[in-house]
Each structure stands twice: as C-alpha cells, then as structure tokens.
C-alpha cells in the first residue's frame, strides 16, 4: 500500500483529486467506483469546481457506488443516490444513466445483490474510492465480514448507526440495514484510493496499514492489493509508526 500523509484535509482532497484526474485523463470512459460519507466531500467539490473552470467532461465516465441504505427511495434526501446527485453528479456533466447504485427499494434483496454483482463484473472499475470507518469498515462491510463476500445486505452495527445518525433528524430514522459491495468486489477494482481524515480514524488507519490482515479489520485486506493508495491527513496518520511520504 502506498501511503501519503498530508498536513490537513484540504491537501488530502487536492492529492485525491490529482489521483482521480490522472485516471480520467488517461481514460475518458473510465469506470469510477465512488463512495459517500463526509470524507470524499472535499474531493467531490474539487471535481465540480474543476469541471466548471476547465470544462473537463464526464460524459463518457461511468460510476458505480459502494452502498445504499435498504428501504430508502432514491428521492429520500438521506439516500446515497440523493447524496451522489447533490454532491457530485448534478455538478458535473456525467449522464445519470451511467451512474449506478443498489436499489434501496428492491423487492427481492437477493436478486438485487445478484444484479449488482453482474453489473460490477461487466464494468471493471478503473478506480475505487473508499473511506474508512472508525472500526476499520469499508463500504458497509463490518468487522468479521469474510474477504470473499460479494454484494450483500447487512444489518448495520450500533456503532455505524450512531456514527451515521448525524445526517438524520434522529437516530430512530437511520435505516437498520443496507446493501453493500463486499470486500471481494472492492478488491477487484484495478486501483483503490482510500482516504482517511481526523483523529477518530487513527486507530483504524494504524490497523489497516501496519496490523495483521484479518476480516476483524476489513480495510486490512487492502494491504494485499497491488495498486492501493492511502491518503491520510496528519491526524488520521498520527498512530502510524513507519516512515511514510509526506505531501505538502
Ligand atoms: C460510504 C461508505 C462508508 C464510509 C465510512 C467513512 O459509501 O461506504 O464505509 O466510507 O463509514 O465515513 P465518513 O467518510 O463519513 O467518515
């Protein structure tokens, strides 16, 4: 895993944008695996700003998202589909029909998981963007998820429900289940870019980079990926013991 430590979140977002830009410049019809959560917001803002200023086009870009709450419609302002439109898709010229996310209202969840796995197999991702949970989760793959798991439904843990409650009016409104790509789907991406910001991620980052590779810390699987970049700000990287590249 290539590790880049930045002094702050703004620099992290700029470095992440450089990685994303390189993928898009090399391949204007690249498949981008995208994530929600607070961490990629700086990157998405830079993509939107760059599109506005330089006219960089996303018309041939395709996007697949990691996960979606179960039971929320795409129009619900807490759905990840809504998040992606609001924070990125509506601010660039990507075609909505080229953006994919699990259907939170699917009547048959098992069928929806199979549909999504087939879609991922047909659209190999050139890059997969990730954030990391305080417990080392990636997407909604909580500790203990087998590494060979593909898209599946999960019952969210109390800690993930509590962490996500900040986006809802009350904790009771946070859905209790979600669809998520599995560790295997994530690992299949050609390149992985994982971002970590803030002190609350420091323990998970330490385990991911320097700990044992174990399903108890899902992100540790990324140590095995041939092309994985972690960009962490100084707080998220504060417990790392190795000597890593510092970016200004
Ligand atoms: C988002 C996702 C989650 C988040 C993680 C970190 O699609 O799957 O795994 O990446 O929970 O969330 P933030 O960025 O809000 O700290």
Verbal overview:
- The chain has 248 residues and is of the alpha/beta class.
- It has a single domain (2-246), classed as Rossmann fold.
- It has seven helices and eleven strands.
- An eight-stranded parallel sheet has the order 5-3-2-6-9-10-1-11, sandwiched between helices. A three-stranded antiparallel sheet has the order 4-8-7, covered by helices on one side.
- Helix 7 (202-210) links the parallel strand 9 (192-196) and strand 10.
- Helix 1 packs across helix 2 (41-54).
- The radius of gyration is 17 Å and the shape is globular.
- Bound molecules: fructose -6-phosphate.
- Fructose -6-phosphate is lined by residues 35-39, 66-67, 131-133, 137-140.
Which descriptors would you attach to this protein?
alpha/beta, Rossmann fold, three-stranded antiparallel beta sheet, binds fructose -6-phosphate
What is the share of helical residues? Answer: 25-40%
Q: Oligomeric state of the chains?
A: single chain
**What is the top-level CATH class?**
Alpha Beta
**Total discrete domains:** 1
Bound molecules: fructose -6-phosphate
What string gives the helices and strands in order? Answer: EHEHEEHEHEEHEHEHEE
Low-confidence stretches: none
> How many distinct beta strands?
11
General shape: globular
What is the third-level CATH name, the topology? Rossmann fold
Q: Mind telling me the C-alpha Rg?
A: 17 Å
